[in-house]
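for ur thesis appendix - Sulfotransferase domain-containing protein. copy paste whatever u need, i formatted it the way the template wanted (i think)
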Amino acid sequence: MSAVELNKYFVTPFFGGEYCGDNNLAYYLIKMVRRKELFRTTLVALVCLLLIALYQKNPSPLIRSRPATFQAIQIEDDQPLEEHSLKEVIINAQRSRLRKELYDFKFPSNRPLANFAMEDGGQPIRTIIFSTWRSGSTFLGDVLNALPGNYYHYEPLMDYGIIQIRGPPDADSALTRLKSLLNCDYTNLYN
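the 3d part is after this line
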């Protein structure tokens, strides 16, 4: 298509003017390109302003600061505090917190909390995640940790370094550590 035909059939009808010859073809093309650029720039600016306005009304929950929460520990005992060890106070506070968290929680097969507490002779539900690097195990552990009454050991063998333990000399101590963690026995664990 020649420049004259382009001017007759495309440029002139598009801008609503009359055919003015070949001289005005460049003028109309430049005018058309500038109108498109102005339209695109205006559209992008409006979208940006709209997003900023919406963001100001509903800020992201990830950026919003969390309010600090404090919980008072109340010891329901007639004995003075000096007679309790710090360990007993912490364990009693954790028991109280668990009772509150698990008050309306639906356990499997509608069994009570005592069936899962080792101190009451119950057996807790144990979940072990074996994985490789970059497989999403940290995310899965965080999801499981959101369940009430759960305790999550993140990479319990990290003290051995980034190695594969397949035999002596570290295998026996690593197995002992894992068994102790699964049985909630923290007496012989040290770094």
